[in-house]
């Protein structure tokens, strides 16, 4: 069996995928680490080496679920330096490996989708009460506007300190994406998610939750309809790729 280091070195990062567990686990993870032979999932799920696990890999609104069965090849515990716990999944089936190979081609040949940006450009709402985190997200979006959009497509960034303020902004004018924390005063992110999905004019709004909450928070957010859940501390690349995909920006 290859070492954890060997397997990690072979991984590629074409995009952020949502990982669901069809065998009745009521939670989901996300991964940016995918290769032809398997994937690494950063998760606090307590896996046993050698166990076989059905997985569903997708990206909401962009990629239909791809069903595979993987084998837990190694487990990483929480480590210093920001390296979170996770599991390395090996895919032994040749047929399922072909599914992974097809996923890896999406970086160069993404699925068909809206090519032109919306009239007036993109509008993103950041719902967060921590100024340092707001600064980081703002920097990501500025880089996206300057690089991928080449400064030719407007990208407006708006801010809300809580869910109540965010909902007022969402009802007053159209947005293309919401990035929200879950734990905030006045109205938290869970209540905001519930109201967004219950409002017909907002129900299909792409929402990414970025939170330091544990498994219970993640499970609750997914049940309420969040498209992608990322865990704090979050990487620059994770935020950038998730925003690009939810906004259909190549």
Q: Main traits of this protein?
A:
Thrombin, subunit H, alpha/beta, 2 domains, Rossmann fold, 7-stranded antiparallel β-sheet, about 250 residues, about 25% strand, single chain
Q: In what range is the share of β-strand residues?
A: 25-35%
List low-confidence stretches.
1-10
- Rounded average pLDDT: 83
Percent helix: 25-40%
Structural class: alpha/beta
Question: Which radius of gyration do the C-alpha atoms yield?
Answer: 18 Å
**Largest beta sheet: what is the strand line-up?**
2-1-5-6-7-4-3
- According to CATH, the fold-level topology of the largest domain is Rossmann fold
Shape: globular
Overview of the molecule:
With 250 residues, the chain is α/β, with parallel strands linked by helices. It folds into 2 domains: 4-107, predicted glycosyltransferase like domains (Thrombin, subunit H, Beta Barrel); 122-246, Response regulator (Rossmann fold). 29% of the residues lie in helices and 27% in strands. It has 7 helices and 12 strands. The chain has helices at residues 4-9, 94-104, 131-146, 163-172, 189-198, 215-223, 236-246; strands at 17-20, 28-31, 33-35, 38-42, 52-59, 63-76, 86-90, 122-127, 155-160, 177-180, 207-211, 228-231. It has a 7-stranded antiparallel sheet with strand order 2-1-5-6-7-4-3. Strands 9-8-10-11-12 form a 5-stranded parallel sheet, with helices on both faces. α3 packs across α7 (236-246). The protein is globular. Residues 1-10 have low confidence and may be disordered.
């Amino acid at each position: 069996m290859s070492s954890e280091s060997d397997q990690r070195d072979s991984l590629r990062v074409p995009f952020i995928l949502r990982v669901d567990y069809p065998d009745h686990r009521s939670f989901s993870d996300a991964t940016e680490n995918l290769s032809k032979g398997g994937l690494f999932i950063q998760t606090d799920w307590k896996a046993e080496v050698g166990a076989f696990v059905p997985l569903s890999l997708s990206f909401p609104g962009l990629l239909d679920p791809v069903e595979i069965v993987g084998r837990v090849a190694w487990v990483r515990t929480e480590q210093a330096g920001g390296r979170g716990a996770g599991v390395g999944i090996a895919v032994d089936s040749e047929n399922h490996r072909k599914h992974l190979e097809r996923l890896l081609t999406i970086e160069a040949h993404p699925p068909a989708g809206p090519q032109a940006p919306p009239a007036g450009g993109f509008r993103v709402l950041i719902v967060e009460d921590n100024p340092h985190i707001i600064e980081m997200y703002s920097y990501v979006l500025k880089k996206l506007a300057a690089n991928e959009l080449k400064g030719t497509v407007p990208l407006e960034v708006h801010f809300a300190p809580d869910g109540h303020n965010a909902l007022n902004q969402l009802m007053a004018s159209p947005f293309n994406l919401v990035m929200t924390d879950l734990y905030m005063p006045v109205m938290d992110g869970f209540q905001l998610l519930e109201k967004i999905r219950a409002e017909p004019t907002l129900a299909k709004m792409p929402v990414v939750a970025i939170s330091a909450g544990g498994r219970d928070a993640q499970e609750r957010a997914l049940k309420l309809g969040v498209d992608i859940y990322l865990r704090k501390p979050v990487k620059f690349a994770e935020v950038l790729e998730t925003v690009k995909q939810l906004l259909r920006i190549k």
